[in-house]
Design a protein that fits this description.
Order of helices and strands: EHEEHEHHEE
Distance between the termini: 12 Å
Oligomer: single chain
Number of strands: 6
Radius of gyration: 15 Å
Number of helices: 4
Length: about 140
């Protein structure tokens, strides 16, 4: 199967979301495959939680785990077109949101995202879960 070039057109009726690193929407044209990723958390390759009580460490590892899923599908963070992020502590998450900017910013993309505060994730020590949709 030959891959088509994915063209992304940001849709932003307001500028405020771009200042914090995401678009309100994106028109996607030319994509050939879509990957729906399960929520990625701060666990090692055996599924054991890591970085207990350390939101920054958990964000970092969740992003690394997301990248591993993308790489296994022959994609990268550049292919992410939608993020859903679930956190147990919104204030701590916002303090560490720069990690997303450091990963997505250099790629020149700002995928639409939803950030949701929840009371708990699957394992009590987890503080963040990142769900993604990717297209190439």
């Amino acid at each position: 199967m030959s891959k088509q070039t994915l063209h992304r057109t940001p849709v932003n009726p307001w500028a405020w979301s771009q200042k914090v690193g995401y678009n309100q929407g994106e028109i996607l044209e030319g994509g050939s495959r879509q990957l729906i990723c399960a929520g990625q958390t701060s666990v090692d390759d055996e599924g054991n939680p890591q970085h207990t009580d350390d939101m920054r460490g958990q964000v970092q590892l969740a992003l690394e785990n997301l990248e591993a899923v993308l790489v296994a599908a022959d994609m990268s963070l550049a292919n992410v077109v939608k993020l859903n992020i679930y956190v147990t502590d919104m204030d701590e998450a916002m303090k560490n949101f720069d990690l997303l900017g450091m990963r997505f910013g250099p790629l020149g993309i700002a995928p639409p995202m939803t950030l949701v505060g929840v009371t708990r994730l699957a394992l009590p020590s987890l503080m963040i879960e990142i769900e993604a949709t990717a297209t190439d």
